[in-house]
Amino acid sequence: MTHRESGTDALRQSMVDYLMRIIGLPDDEELAREADEVVRALDGRLSTGRHAAA
Amino acid sequence: MSATATAENPVLRAVRTHTQAENSSSFLTLNSGNSVFTTPGADGVIVYRTTGRFAVQLGGPFAAPETYDTLLRRFTEHVRGQGLRLVGVQLQRHDAERYAAQGFTVNQIGASWAVSLPEFSLRGGRFVQLRNKISRALRNGLEIAEVPAGDYHTALEAIDNAWLGSKGEQARPLEFLVGQLGGDAQQHRRLFVGTIDGAPVAYISYSPVYGSRAGWMHDLSRRIPSGSPGLMEAINAHAIERFREEGVEWLHFGFTPFTGLDEANELPGHSPAFQWLMHFLWEHGEALYPAQTQLAYKQKWAPDALLPEYVAFDGQASLASFAHIFRACNAF
């Protein structure tokens, strides 16, 4: 399953997990890119939710 | 061009002169270890630290209004040209709007807190606990004096070592977004030290704040871990009385991440994911930063002003950029 297909809570948990991993490996560029993808996916999910609620 | 900051460079002049952002932490730009960016024809400075592949900027440009955008744009180009990723922290609302207009993703990251001194008094029911703590410290023999830092170097170092030792083997002293003692900038700070039976047990350093809420910022503070309750509260109350006698209008308590978060403070284009993360770290981020403990101390003084502070990402909100703010502070 891609990040785009994950549920909102799973993306939130993934975001926290990536933050902890980055703190452990701050110079890992691949990890940073994967984390960016999670943030993008969660931004998309939460933005969609707001528009739907509006 | 880049250079290492000293008290004699244009940084002090810039933070005193270009106060439109009202950044209560602007004096931290004078910390040793910071880098300074200037560009010909633009009156102002940008202060930052490089860590890993990131440039972490403290506040916005301290620049004349007509050169602010030019300086920011050239600095952004400079950072990108170095193969680095830019993240700005402790931006004020004024900065946040300018960064958002230049395409940055801007989110609230926390808040700074300030007390208006002319009306301030420790009388009344809401300060009962605070007064009790102060009384205990004074009954335990605490004496407080404003002193020249140079005369207390050894004592301050002993307090620092005892304080750091109490934090565990992995503890590291924070830098960059916290104050320093010593160096050329020391002449502009004020230091209040508490002693018991002649032995220094705690201190608070205050740094100057410029702008419409000018005054002093409660900055670096340390105490010996086994000391009396109420040491910091008693020293700060003493300093407040001194400041009030001098006609000082504001005491600032500085920035605490993850605090004062409010949807109403967010700007268009912010990252809802990062916004959620800030709320999560307020609730569960003690290991990263003890925001609730820090805020509890500040709220003891019933602050009159909550000033939202922002982070700006060059591009999308980035966990790696956010983490490097803490790395620049020597947190890991």
TrEMBL record, chain A:
It comes from the Bacteria. This is Uncharacterized protein. It comes from Streptomyces mashuensis.
From TrEMBL, chain B:
It holds the Pfam family LPG_synthase_C. Its main location: membrane. It is a multi-pass membrane protein. It comes from the Bacteria. Keywords: Cell membrane, Membrane, Transmembrane, Transmembrane helix. SUPFAM superfamilies: Acyl-CoA N-acyltransferases (Nat) (SSF55729). The keyword Transmembrane helix applies. GO terms for cellular component: plasma membrane. GO terms for molecular function: aminoacyltransferase activity. One of its GO terms (biological process) is phospholipid homeostasis. It is found in: Cell membrane. Residues 17-313 form the Phosphatidylglycerol lysyltransferase C-terminal domain. This is Phosphatidylglycerol lysyltransferase C-terminal domain-containing protein.
